[in-house]
Amino acid sequence: MAIPSAPPGTDHPAAAEAAPQRFPELYVPEMPFAMPELQALAADGLLDRLHHRGYTLPGVAASPQLRARAAAGVVPPSVRQRVVAGRMTAAWIYGCAAEPDRLALLVDAKRRVSSLRNTRGCTLHEVKLGPFDVVSLGGLMVSSPLRTALDIALHVDAGRAIPALEGLLARPEKDVRLRLLVLAIEATPRVPHKKAALEKLAALAPALVAGGPVNVEHAVDPADSAENVAQVLGVTHFEGKL
Q1: β-bridge partners, 40
Q2: Are strands 54-56 and 122-127 parallel, antiparallel or unpaired?
Q3: Tens-digit pLDDT profile for residues 112-146
Q4: What share of the chain is helix, strand, coil (3-state, %, to 5)?
């Protein structure tokens, strides 16, 4: 059951380039070890736990792509292309939150949700998604950093939301700006939990959260996506694959 060491002679740079990668980055149940074997290997220090059903070799960097691959393994293949990892699951994938107990999966309101109700280990949220709200990452669709931040501010309790928002804002490559989040929430007049969301953002930077609404020419319907919010506010928001 032990994981073999690297073959001799591959420590030379030329040999390392010529030799194919022998060990996978991610170990999941039955590929090739059963779950009890994976747990035993982790207990012996031969594997590191990445996810409750995913393990890596010691020293392997837990990248967003790798975490997305681990999360994808929990989603049944039959529904994987119909759901989007969001909220605290997306924050975990981006490295800004702890691993959640259950996967938060977003389902576009245009799709049929009834067939997904029995997806185990997951919580489904019916939402409206625009093309800029989703990125492809590690074989899984994930809510974009901006959409993730908006959803967390609106729907996650402050104790978990504020640290996750701090993490997203601290990573410039995610292109999440606090002022944009404030404007997006204040410009949606009927969005649920708006006051609580602004209180969370005020805890991060009180000076950015004014007492009154932002004066915009066109209000944003609460069902609109982060993409449309950005368009109304005149803020450039790029689509991308991470």
Answers
A1: none
A2: unpaired
A3: 666 566 667 788 888 988 888 999 998 899 999 99
A4: 40, 15, 45
